[in-house]
Design brief:
The structure holds 3 protein chains of 3 kinds.
Chain A lengths: L1 H21 L20 E8 L5 H5 L1 H6 L2 E8 L4 H10 L7 E4 L4 H6 L7 H4 L4 H4 L8 H7 L1 E2 L2 E2 L1 E5 L3 E6 H4 L2 H11 L9 H11 L6 E2 L2 E2 L5 E4 L7 H9 L18 H13 L12 H9 L3 E7 L2 H5 L11 E4 L3 E4 L2 E4 L1 E2 L4 E5 L6 H14 L1 H6 L10 H4 L11 H16 L1 E2 L7 H17 L4 H19 L1 H17 L5
Helix pairs in contact in A: 12-13, 12-20, 20-21
Chain B lengths: L1 H41 L1 E2 L9 E2 L3 H9 L1 H34 L4 H13 L2 H11 L6 H9 L16 H26 L3 H10 L3 H28 L4 H7 L10 H11 L3 H32 L1
Antiparallel strand pairs in B: 1-2
Helix pairs in contact in B: 1-12, 3-7, 3-9, 3-11, 4-7, 5-10, 7-9, 9-12, 11-12
Chain C lengths: L5 H28 L22 H7 L7 H34 L3 H13 L2 H14 L6 H26 L3 H8 L4 H12 L1 H16 L3 H5 L8 H7 L1 E2 L2 E2 L1 H22 L7 H7 L1
Antiparallel strand pairs in C: 1-2
Helix pairs in contact in C: 1-12, 2-12, 3-6, 3-9, 3-11, 4-6, 6-9, 7-8, 9-12
């Protein structure tokens, strides 16, 4: 029994110490100019979001909220449970949440079903320094496609996820490798511009244990490239290859465009890429893909933009200082190469329609989305990624890079990727459409279906889903979405 | 006189009912509403991602599931495969271990506690451990295989190989649930009266005969209930699939519980999900009925 | 009991060793991982023995952000719910099991209906149950989870104990009844102690099922109630899996179960109760 008492005391002590450690916050920067709104009268705002470091901003800036009379109560939900938890509470009308964090692919569902409050009128309140979230500062694709629905603003961004090309600069720039590549493929060895380059370079760098790589003998097999080939997001890696063609998911009558020759070509390219990937690539989720790259198993990956932040940390990465970033490869279309980067996941915050303190809730959302966003995306204490021009123009804030120059390189890469940003499907039914695509893409990767079979199956299933959800309404919503796509030049 | 006897008879008839009443009330009170709610939903189409109201479709959902949804059938097949191989192995290994532990006296407590740990570990946590263990390049399992075969064989791509993934899941299931069967069979063994064994020994029965004639028949009810519970729970297996393979590669590890979860919690197709739930109920009921009948026949024979 | 030959003993030893290796490997892996640092989670060759045994993962897991109470609250809430549900299920369930076994109350239909409530996929029952608890204002309170878990544990308890009661010969209770003992007393003083091993196994698993339940814990709680099963997935961000912290919480989470198992095993002994009755 004494042992137990001692252990409990120890645990409590540990808890106290750890709490002290958690209470650190990034140093406030004076880059973004903002003001407090007129104080509220002792308002409690319930914030729901995915548990973990992405909720830390509410802890960091607790003081700011208290200054205007707002008390924040956090409700954490596991990352994978966010949608079902929020949806269930909304459906049952419990009014439990005031500020809702969610993944923007669900904006069609949440906004379309009236769970969220349109924010336009709050954005226009004066003084602007207190209320304006500076939409123009947010990169186009993210704002137009992920924060607005049916012409109104429903959410503010807090985490800009986008995919980016990451590769081994040291291998690409190695003179011996360059010479060998030129000899074999007849072109310069540089970061892949097209998906054909992706295959060629991938093939070139796939070598067995014992072979030479950049003058060193390999102790393990090395591979040219890897993909997120696990069920869940494998579809996004396929879409990287299809989006450049400019075909929308559906045409204006909700006829799926996913079974076109372009799409089959795109999927075939992904299937072919697996030849240059490690044998367990079909099990690669976020972690496995990142590890394959930073532990020096593959030469190139397309991954979320936060990987280089960790990749430059020698304690975790075998390739610190050797990472190059670039635009996701594209296809040569009409004389130039068109690049597109998927924006999977991401986070936005919104105000619940049945919130009782909408102004206060709005200001909380705006504060995190704009006022303190630079501190939040540039620190290693959260997992939030940049999405505003302000974020890209201030490399000095990103202290996890050894030099400001490296931060600058990184940010240039992210900004370019986000400018190429392409959205997930965000109309109601997004989860169903994407799951169908993901399943069949995965089957094609696993060899259970040919690319053509897979995409034909997807087209058929998408039609069934549209019918199930009500074709007329879906067409109406999709046509509005198409306008947004057009205005951004994402479709032809 | 007769009053007392009447009272006694009344009480004798009521007593059993009083015993069962709390359980029945509890279950009835809470399950009645969900069951009726879901039954109603099964005949409607209600897509909660849209703002369309629910509409009556009679047997439409059932027809779609049974005749147009290949995913339902493939996920059912995956689940039944898992059930068949997993539960058989768990029963076999569990019984063997229980018999062994039954004989040990001093080390039993410690051994039982150790063997129970896999069941104690939250499936969520176990899922993550297996993701590490099954990792093709950095995982300990393949490393140990590599060391054991002197580098000649580097193990499987447990999670990524479509031919192996389901086996990996089955192994995880066996690891986690064999101790369950082990413990209840051990409890069952403990309940068998020693006198029976002593009598058998006096009669000169061999170990095999003792097992076959005494132990096994008396254990059978417990084993069957164990299989029943495991069979029902196999239909609910979710956490491991979700975390380790996500149903993939392709859909080789997509179980019916995973698919139902997708329909219910990602697609919010509530009517469809309800219909799927009832179809699963039918399947499980058939399986359960089979085992219950089997047990009754065994009991009759004893 | 027959004595074993040394050959037999060796065989048993080998079998137990293999079994231990198989079942304990992931457990030991989890335990060791909980002390590893980030660089040691995935490497080739894999790290079996951490370079330094740091308790950092335990600190982090227990003081999970943003309010620093994650782990402790998880332990407390999981304990309350698992204990509550186990007690309720065993109390109510043993009575019902006895009745079903001795009196065949309700015949096959009742007992099969009871079992069938466990057959219904929880996913489908989730929304209506959510609505019920919302009406009862029990959302984000422990009671809702105790009830939800009891619903799924009751059929298990009833069927398990029914099996054990079935194994029990009726003579001893009949003897007591003839001597004027009431049914309830016979149940409490004779039948129940005789199925002690069954009770032990059943209670243990009731506890485990509730302890590890995830779906209802996710849906029916917000911030006042947070079970360990919710905390663990919270350690997984979209871009970050805290492997070490997960292993740490996993290790801590099995402690109550092990303690319970050690505690209850005293009753998992044959003859203890039989002897008492005979005497």
């Amino acid at each position: 029994m004494k042992v137990y008492r001692g252990a409990i005391l120890w645990l409590v002590l540990a808890l106290v110490l750890a709490t002290a450690a958690v209470a650190q916050a990034p140093p406030p920067l004076s880059v973004v100019k903002w003001d407090y709104p007129p104080p509220f009268k002792n308002v409690t705002i319930n914030v729901v979001g995915d548990a973990g470091h992405n909720l830390k901003p509410y802890e960091f800036w607790k003081g700011d909220f208290e200054k205007v009379g707002i008390t924040i109560q956090i409700i954490e939900v596991p990352f994978e449970g966010v949608y079902e938890k929020e949806k269930t509470e909304f459906v049952a009308g419990t009014g439990a949440f005031d500020v809702v964090t969610f993944y923007p692919a669900y904006i069609g569902d949440f906004a379309g079903n009236g769970y969220l409050e349109p924010l336009d009128k709050y954005m226009k309140k004066t003084p602007a320094s207190a209320w304006d979230p500076n939409a123009a500062d947010v990169l186009g694709p993210f704002w137009e496609l992920y924060c607005k629905f049916d012409g109104k603003v429903y959410a503010l961004p807090i985490d800009g996820d986008v995919l980016m090309l990451q590769f081994r600069k040291d291998l690409i720039e190695n003179p011996q490798e360059k010479a060998a590549f030129k000899a074999k493929y007849g072109k310069e060895l540089k970061a892949p511009e097209t998906w054909q380059d992706w295959l060629d370079i991938g093939q070139f760098f796939t070598r067995k244990k014992g072979a030479k790589l950049a003058g060193q003998v390999l102790e393990r097999d090395f591979y040219g490239s890897a993909e997120f080939a696990k069920r869940g997001f494998s579809f996004a890696w396929f879409l990287n290859r299809w989006a450049p063609f400019g075909d929308p998911y559906f045409d204006k009558d909700m006829k799926p465009q996913i079974a076109s020759a372009n799409a089959v070509k795109a999927l075939q390219n992904m299937v072919d890429s697996l030849k240059n990937s490690p044998p367990d690539v079909l099990g690669y989720g976020y972690d496995e893909l990142r590890d394959a790259f930073v532990k020096s198993t593959v030469a190139m990956v397309v991954q979320w933009t936060d990987v280089p932040k960790k990749g430059d940390d020698p304690s975790q990465s075998a390739i610190a200082g050797k990472i190059g970033v670039g635009r996701v490869p594209g296809w040569p279309i009409g004389g130039k190469v068109v690049h597109r980067s998927m924006m999977p996941v991401g986070r936005v915050v919104a105000v619940a329609a049945d919130c009782r303190n909408k102004e206060a809730a709005y200001w909380v959302a705006k504060h995190i989305s704009y006022d303190r966003s630079l501190e939040d995306v540039s620190t290693a204490l959260t997992g939030l990624d940049p999405y505003r021009t302000t974020h890209f123009k201030n490399p000095q804030a990103y202290k996890m890079f050894p030099t400001e120059a490296r931060a600058q390189d990184y940010l240039k890469g992210v900004e370019a990727a986000m400018a190429d940003g392409y959205p997930e499907i965000f109309i109601p039914g997004a989860a169903q459409y994407e799951d169908s695509l993901d399943l069949h893409v995965n089957k094609a990767l696993a060899g259970q279906e040919s690319p053509k079979q897979a995409l034909d199956a997807v087209a058929k299933e998408w039609d069934a889903i549209t019918d199930k959800l009500g074709r007329a309404k879906q067409i109406e919503l999709w046509r509005k979405a198409l306008q947004a796509y057009s205005s951004l030049g994402l479709i032809k | 006189m007769s009053e007392n006897r009447l009272l006694l008879r009344w009480r004798r008839r009521r007593v059993p009912i009083f015993f069962v009443l709390p359980a029945v009330i509890t279950l009835l009170a809470i399950t009645v509403f969900p069951l009726i709610y879901e039954l109603r939903l099964a005949f409607m189409s209600w897509e909660l991602t849209t703002s369309e109201p629910a509409r009556f479709v009679a047997l439409g959902n059932f027809a779609t599931i049974l005749f147009h949804d290949s995913r339902f059938w493939s996920s059912l097949r995956v689940t039944l495969t898992l059930l068949l191989f997993g539960v058989s192995a768990e029963v076999a290994i569990g019984t063997g271990l229980a018999l062994l532990l039954n004989r040990l006296r001093r080390s039993r407590t410690m051994l039982v506690s150790l063997f129970l740990i896999p069941v104690l570990i939250a499936p969520v946590v176990a899922g993550f451990q297996f993701r590490m263990i099954y990792h093709d390049q950095f995982g300990p399992l393949n490393y140990l295989i590599e060391m054991a075969t002197g580098g000649r064989w580097r193990g499987f791509a447990w999670i990524a190989d479509p031919k192996i993934a389901l086996l990996a899941i089955v192994m995880t299931d066996i690891w986690q649930w064999t101790p369950f069967l082990m413990l209840i069979i051990l409890a069952g063994l403990q309940s068998i009266s020693l006198e029976l064994y002593e009598a058998a020994e006096v009669d000169g029965a061999s170990a095999g005969q003792t097992f076959g004639r005494i132990t096994l028949p008396l254990l059978l009810p417990v084993i069957i209930i164990g299989i029943l519970i495991r069979a029902m729970d196999s239909f609910k297996l979710f956490d491991i699939i979700y975390l380790v393979t996500g149903g993939g590669p392709g859909n080789v590890t997509e179980t019916i519980s995973f698919y139902t979860y997708l329909q219910g919690f990602k697609f919010f197709s509530l009517g469809y999900t309800a219909a799927m739930a009832f179809l699963q109920l039918v399947v499980i009921t058939v399986i359960a009925q089979f085992f219950v009948n089997f047990q009754k026949r065994q009991a009759g024979r004893g | 009991m027959r004595r074993w030959s040394p050959g037999r003993k060796a065989f048993v030893f080998v079998v137990l060793l293999v079994a231990l290796l198989f079942f304990m490997f992931p457990v030991v892996w989890m335990f060791l991982t909980s002390f590893k640092s980030e660089a040691e989670y995935f490497s080739y060759p894999p790290v079996f023995w951490p370079k330094s045994f740091s308790l950092r993962n335990y600190f982090n897991a227990m003081a999970f952000p943003p309010d620093g109470r994650g782990g402790l609250q998880g332990l407390r809430d999981s304990l309350l719910i698992a204990a509550g549900s186990t007690l309720a299920s065993v109390l109510i369930g043993s009575l019902a099991a006895y009745s079903l076994s001795r009196f065949k109350t309700g015949g096959e239909n009742l007992s099969f209906w009871i079992l069938s409530t466990r057959m219904f996929p929880p996913v489908a029952a989730a929304l209506p149950l959510f609505l019920i608890f919302k009406q009862l204002r029990l959302l984000d309170r422990h009671l809702s989870l105790v009830i939800a878990n009891t619903i799924f544990n009751l059929p298990f308890v009833i069927w398990m104990l029914k099996g054990f009661f079935d194994e029990l010969p009726v003579e001893m209770e009949e003897a007591a009844l003839i001597e004027g003992c009431g049914r309830l007393k016979a149940f409490r003083l004779i039948a129940l102690p005789l199925v002690a091993p069954g009770l032990v196994a059943t209670s243990l698993f009731c506890f485990i099922f509730s302890w590890n339940e995830f779906m209802f814990a996710l849906l029916l709680t917000r911030r006042n109630v947070r079970t360990l099963t919710i905390i663990v997935p919270s350690l997984v961000g979209g871009h970050e899996i805290l492997w070490g912290e997960i292993a740490a919480i996993g290790t801590l989470a099995i402690v109550p179960g092990i303690l319970l198992a050690l505690l209850l095993q005293r009753y998992l002994v044959r003859g203890l109760s039989l002897g008492a009755v005979k005497g």
